[in-house]
Amino acid sequence: MSILITPDTKVLVQGITGDFGARHARLSLDYGTKVVAGVTPGKGGQFFEHGAHRVPIFNSVADAARATGATVSAIFVPPPFAADAILECADAGLDLAVAITEGIPVRDMVRVKRAMAGGHTRLLGPNCPGIVTPGTGERSQGGCRIGIAPGYIHRKGHVGVVSRSGTLTYEAVYQLTVRDIGQSTCVGIGGDPVNGTSHLDVIRMFNDDPETVGIVMIGEIGGNAEVEAARWIRDHCRKPVAGFIAGSTAPAGRRMGHAGAIVGGAEDTAAAKIAVFKECGIEVAVTPSDMADALIRVATARGVALS
Amino acid sequence: MNIHEYQAKALFEKFGVPVPKGAAAKTAEEFAGALAQLPEGPTMVKSQIHAGGRGKGTFTDGTKGGVKFCKTKADALEVAKGMLGKTLVTVQTGPAGRKVQTVYFTVASDIKKEYYLAVLLDRASSRPVIVASTEGGVEIEKVAHETPEKIFKVVVDPAYGLADFQVRDLLTRLGLTGAEAKNGGRLLRALYAMYWETDAAMIEVNPLITTPTGEVLALDAKVSFDDNALFRHPEIVALRDLNEEDPKEVEASKHGLSYIALDGNIACLVNGAGLAMSTMDIIKHFGGNPANFLDVGGGASKAQVVAAFKIILGDPNVKGIFVNIFGGIMDCNVIASGIVEAVREVGLSLPLVVRLEGNNVEAGKATLAASGLPIVSGGSMADAAQKIVKLVP
Prior knowledge:
The structure holds two protein chains of two kinds. Chain A is α/β, with parallel strands linked by helices. Chain A has helices at 19-31, 61-68, 79-91, 106-116, 166-178, 199-208, 225-236, 270-279, 291-302; strands at 10-14, 34-39, 47-50, 53-58, 72-75, 96-99, 122-124, 130-133, 144-147, 156-163, 183-188, 214-220, 241-246, 283-284. Chain A folds into two domains: 10-124, NAD(P)-binding Rossmann-like Domain (Rossmann fold), CATH 3.40.50; 155-301, Succinyl-CoA synthetase domains (Rossmann fold), CATH 3.40.50. Chain A is globular, with a radius of gyration of 19 Å. In chain B, strand 17, helix 11 and strand 18 form a beta-alpha-beta unit. In chain B, the strands form five sheets. In chain B, strands 8, 9, 10, 11, 12 and 13 form a six-stranded antiparallel β-sheet that branches. Chain B has helices at 5-15, 31-36, 73-81, 140-146, 164-174, 178-197, 234-237, 247-254, 273-285, 302-313, 332-346, 361-370, 381-391; strands at residues 22-25, 43-47, 58-59, 67-70, 87-89, 98-99, 103-107, 113-122, 127-133, 151-155, 200-210, 216-218, 222-225, 258-261, 266-270, 292-295, 320-327, 352-358, 375-377. In chain B, helix 5 packs across helix 6 (178-197), helix 10 crosses helix 11 and helix 11 (332-346) runs parallel beside helix 12.
């Protein structure tokens, strides 16, 4: 098993005819992901061709979902139109909308989040690398790759990874894979201050997933999400968790590439979050090079086999 | 994006947030004209820089106070001459300070009581929040720490906007009644409308004041905007003051790079914001000091790498460079050739450690080795960080 997506998940791509969307749709198809539809308003009826693949393009998400049974969307729509693209997924009743787009105005996301509250559709991101459930093939092919993560660094297995940052997620996944530790699902929740799915949401899912035996949680300075997740882990999580917080050296009040990573007070500094992690029994990676080893330490101490 | 107080106050007036009458001047010749717009009487002279703590700041020539009260307009003119063109150092500017290029004159209001008011994003609820306090004119962090019961918050539902009952609730908590409540209510609604309609990231009014005649005025204004939303606000982009920004950061943004100068001596060049932050962290962990945050983005090109090297080497404090690239999708060999090209183009006399991992990494490492350049190759992030820290005295 895995969380949120499986290798059988049918995926549509919004913005499949743009450079960015097209490139990653091709990489997902090569990985073995079931990309069954593209959506570009005005290009309905055309096809997205890649090797032997011929993916039909639709004018709307609702049309694409109805015709192909797609339940998840990968959103590669430019920032001014991305909020609308997310709302379209909610309106079409998809299970999951994965918003890769970076640079969506905060006000747009505030409205989108309000509109989606209590609804069926879950949002992942925006400004996130997406989500990967590795497959059983060579270099984890045959899995479901939604977004922009490099599929080949994964390996099918039993560790769940959740992170706000893209490249830092890849770093963690790579560290695990070279130690022969596979992953159940790797989730990028995105670096923006307003996002659809939180650390805690993903941790709960990993805790409930019988195939996941250990968890790596990667956070950043700013906000309260990692602290909230850590306290829940202390009280409810039955699985070993390793954690890393980026930004110990970030100067207060400066934007560090992610709008969400702003140090606003004492509670959301790296030091404060790391202290809470320790309090809650999370094994802290002392450097970003130590993420996989931290998980191995805590799993060994608890007698949990990771692979 | 940040703007000056005088620009923020102009926006306040446009949205109906009352402010003391004021006028700005950029040259000494403009002082008289600006002051002519104000009535005779007590006048404030305010240095315009993008940093707080101006009142308690010190100019580099030793003069104290970037914000001054003057009994007459004639005094104000003299005081302004002593501010313009000078460098003001405050708790928020760092030791280098900021050059005062605009002076803002305002009527000095009679203050009955000072309050605090702000509108910003509440990350926990993903909704706008209005924060108010009866303790104005002081550091709000201190109030939050020492007397949290004096801070009031109202979270606004974006589906409905600021509701009347929420306005009443805030006014009651602040203890405003009669004319003050009526004027305060109008101000709250106008301030919230401005926050929402301009895509502001934060509006802070400290202090907000009441006057003996029942007026409610924004005496100060600190406003920043969501960079992601600037594309739909050309009128706000026009307020940008490049003098207030680090020239290296401005140059970086032209090349699609995200750069922030720090005070260490090991420059970093990294792809991805999270990895860039943690690269700084790991340098510090092994006893070094990062000179900057630099994110070349997920799909860095050769041209970007060259630009990044030039920006890094423009910082005279830099004594070594650490390149940390996790090429997930991007080809490590493309990055390696970019590094070699950049080093050849800009010349390099400093130690350079490169850690490449990911797609086509073997070819990338071979390109670096074959270049004949004195580039040290790092294995893991930890290994590479230790190498650069050792190489930089």
